[in-house]
Design brief:
By secondary structure, the protein is of the alpha+beta class. The protein folds into three domains: about 80 residues, Immunoglobulin-like; about 70 residues, Immunoglobulins (Immunoglobulin-like, Sandwich), CATH 2.60.40; about 160 residues, C8orf32 fold, CATH 3.10.620. The protein is built from eight helices and 16 strands. The strands form five sheets. It has a four-stranded mixed β-sheet with strand order 1-4-3-2, with no helix packed on it. The protein has a four-stranded mixed β-sheet with strand order 6-10-9-8, with no helix packed on it. The longest helix has about 45 residues. The radius of gyration is 44 Å and the shape is elongated.
């Protein structure tokens, strides 16, 4: 049966429906508003984070399009940024700064070679082009002895103790200007050194050389020099072989080889070796012989038996056997220290290409030892 709704009831029902609709609309509106607030808050947080890590809109204006770099050192992406302005205006956070990197590792950039190179920077999203110019404006550094001393007329080794270094790593030749030196006139003279690298930077240095008057030493003078030297290179507890090696090594390492020197005055030769530290084979022989004798080591003078050339060395009595002792400089760094006849003969044939380099008159000489006590190994003599 169809139930008839009275007007009063209908009005009441409609009112309920309207009220329910309004409540739903209110609830929906409030939910939308809450969601929008959440979205706004989230968006603001993202914008704050983005502002913290992002680059300025005109970041390219803070990149040096052309960077000039002194040769050497380590290059970083931040070297291309105008950090002074960025820090002053607080335009870049530390995180954003660290995000800048090379787009591609600039392996082709040679920081040790002058030239201009393309370098790309990126923050992971954008990239920027810059040009790097590597230049070399630093001159080579030349190290020279403060003073040189040579007797009148002696050959001068101007480059002895001279070295040169350059930031390019190049091997440079040192030029010596000796126009102001008069080697045959006693006095003090300047010596000028220079070296130029491939970037045309020139380094310069200056030393002083003293040309000494010819000096005739006394026996006391020479002995004092010899004993002072021995006090610095030998000790009382050394074995004779060790003392002989100390003398050999000092003469070999400290006396500079000259083309010619006195050969008719042994005392003068010893003085030249100890004081001037310069001479030829006779100087090496005379100096070492004098020092060996002071140490109580028996030795004899030997000279090459030849009409065309002369060479001087010693025979040294070591443990009852006589050995060759020659501390002058030889080819292939041969060390003629306590050598047998067989050893010096082998050197003469293999290196010198002649049998008679150490050939001498054996008539009045003692018989030489055949036992090898030195073959180039220092540990065998206790060093």
């Amino acid at each position: 049966m169809l139930k008839i709704i009275k007007p009063v009831q209908l009005i009441w029902l409609v009112s309920l429906l309207v009220l329910a609709g309004c409540t739903d609309q209110k609830n929906h509106t409030e939910a939308e508003q809450e969601k929008k607030v959440e979205e706004i808050s989230s968006s603001q947080g993202q914008e704050e984070n983005a502002a913290e890590f992002s680059l300025p809109r005109n970041f390219a204006a803070y990149i040096f399009p052309e960077l000039v770099w002194e040769m050497g050192g380590e290059l970083t992406p931040q070297d291309f940024l105008d950090m002074e302005t960025l820090e002053k205006e607080s335009l870049l956070s530390e995180e954003a700064l660290q995000s800048i990197s090379f787009f591609e590792a600039p392996e082709e950039v040679q920081l040790q070679t002058a030239g201009t190179y393309e370098v790309w920077l990126t923050d992971g999203t954008s990239k920027w082009l810059a040009h790097l110019t590597v230049q070399d404006t630093q001159p080579p550094i030349i190290t020279v002895p403060e003073t040189l001393e040579y007797p009148v007329g002696e050959p001068i080794l101007y480059k002895k103790g001279v070295s040169v270094m350059d930031n390019s790593g190049e091997v440079l030749e040192v030029t010596v200007d000796t126009h102001a030196v008069f080697p045959n006139i006693p006095g003090q003279y300047p010596v000028y050194y220079s070296a130029t690298d491939s970037s045309y930077n020139t380094g310069r240095a200056e030393s002083m050389i003293t040309i000494l008057e010819e000096h005739k030493p006394t026996q006391q003078e020479v002995e004092t020099l010899a004993r002072d030297l021995l006090a610095s290179i030998v000790t009382e507890d050394m074995e004779p072989l060790q003392k002989a090696w100390a003398i050999y090594e000092w003469c070999y390492s400290n006396i500079r080889n000259a083309a010619d020197a006195v050969k008719d005055d042994m005392l003068q030769a010893v003085y030249d070796g100890l004081h001037y530290k310069v001479g030829d084979c006779y100087t090496y022989f005379a100096t070492s012989s004098y020092l060996l004798s002071i140490c109580g080591i028996e030795n004899l003078a030997v000279s090459r038996k030849s009409e065309n050339s002369t060479h001087y060395w010693s025979l040294v009595n070591m443990d009852g056997g006589w050995y060759h002792f020659d501390c002058s400089h030889q080819l292939e760094r041969y060390q003629c220290f306590m050598q047998t006849d067989a050893q010096v003969q082998e050197y003469s044939q293999k290196v010198r290409g002649q049998d008679g380099y150490y050939q001498f008159d054996q008539e009045d000489m003692p018989e030489r030892a055949t036992e090898i006590i030195y073959s180039g190994e220092r540990e065998k003599i206790g060093y």
